[in-house]
Design goal:
The chain starts with a strand and ends in a 12-residue tail after the last helix. The relative contact order is 0.13. The chain has one domain: 3-Layer(aba) Sandwich (Rossmann fold), CATH 3.40.50. The chain is built from six helices and eight strands. The strands form two sheets. A five-stranded parallel sheet has the order 6-5-4-7-8, sandwiched between helices. By secondary structure, it is an alpha/beta fold. It is 31% helix and 26% strand.
Length: 190
């Protein structure tokens, strides 16, 4: 069951594990290292402040959609989150800022992706977990092809991939995405 703690800065936990951190007064503050890395990449994808069309698979407390809304006003964002209860909790306790063009969709990420229009996103951010794992149907070659189909020709796919030595899952995901995308970059702890 999700829990939300603190006053204007919120730490969202699911089953006792930290999942998202949001500071309602400072939406550009990215507490978790992986969100900072994703934010750094988002900052380099286009001229500063230029709006982007962003598809978020996995929503959490909407940390990255808030960041995009603050750093790239006018961006259109879709957030797909399978956990309806989590979306309701976040909408009630952590409302998005006025003017943020963020559409929330309570749906399975893969199913929603398969119905999304082709060439409709500048950025696709995948941050979906079932417990500590990425759901298997979001790790396949067919999924990677769907992600590529939804991205514009110069679009960028960003993913939060959790793994540990000897990195078998990470290696398989890199191989899968290398079969679809011409260029890959990996950001990881040394």
């Amino acid at each position: 069951m999700p829990d939300v703690d603190r006053d204007r800065a919120w730490l969202l936990t699911v089953d006792g594990a930290p999942q998202s951190y949001v500071d309602l007064d400072a939406p550009t503050h990215l507490e978790f290292e992986y969100t900072r890395r994703l934010g750094h990449v988002l900052d380099t994808l286009a001229a500063p402040g230029r709006p982007l069309d962003v598809l978020h698979l996995g929503g959490g407390a909407l940390t990255l959609p808030r960041y995009v809304a603050a750093t790239r006003p006018g961006s259109h964002q879709d957030v797909v989150e399978a956990d309806r209860g989590l979306l309701g909790l976040v909408a009630e306790h952590l409302p998005l800022p006025d003017g943020a063009a963020v559409a929330l969709h309570a749906a399975d990420a893969r199913a929603w992706l398969e119905t999304a229009p082709a060439d409709s996103a500048d950025v696709l951010i995948a941050d979906v977990f079932g417990g500590s794992r990425i759901p298997a149907h979001l790790t396949t070659l067919a999924y990677a092809r769907e992600a590529e189909r939804v991205l514009r020709p110069d679009g960028v796919y960003l993913a939060n991939l959790a793994d540990a030595a000897p990195f078998a899952f990470l290696r398989s995901q890199l191989a899968t995405f290398a079969a679809v995308f011409a260029e890959l970059a990996l950001i990881a702890e040394p």
